[in-house]
Amino acid sequence: MKFLCLVYFAPGAFDDMTPQEQQQLDDATIADDQRLRESGHLLIASPLADAATGVTIDRRQRMTLSTVDGPFAESKEVVGGFLLLEARDMDEVLSLLENDPIAPYGRLEIRPLMDTHRHSETGQGRPEFKAL
């Protein structure tokens, strides 16, 4: 099964870190990504650019396209990165992320990807995901 892990951070979560602490955290997360990749579990992982660089598309109102720069103002946390993992089940994912070095700085949300739901009336499935 495939699982998406979204990594949420409060604004300013890293503001008190020294450059050396930031480098140590970067090194630790890269090493952990390598561990997950070598074990065959990591398909892709990446930090995201600052939330202020993002755009939100919202078509819920009158079915017209509306864009908003950055995250919604009421957001207390923003998605700062993600991992796409392959694992047997949720228990295995939880054990893989047990000592994740970024976890003490934010919150991880783990959700399985749907593998049976199809959006196509023809019954055609989505193209198979291929790791980079």
What is the strand content?
Answer: 25-35%
Helix content estimate: 10-25%
Q: Supply the number of helical segments.
A: 2
Radius of gyration: 17 Å
Summed over residues and divided by their number, the pLDDT gives a mean of 86
Uncertain ranges? none
Instruction: Describe the global form.
Output: globular
Question: Biggest β-sheet: count, sense, barrel?
Answer: 4 strands, antiparallel
Strand segment count:
6
Spell the H/E element sequence.
EHEEEEHE
- Across the major sheet, the strand order is 2-5-1-6
Q: Roughly how many Å apart are the termini? A: 18 Å
Sheet/helix structural class: alpha+beta
Keywords:
132 residues; four-stranded antiparallel sheet; 2 helices; 6 strands
Provide a quick synopsis of the model:
With 132 residues, the chain is an alpha+beta fold. The protein has helices at 19-38, 90-96, and strands spanning 2-9, 42-47, 55-58, 66-69, 78-86, 107-112.
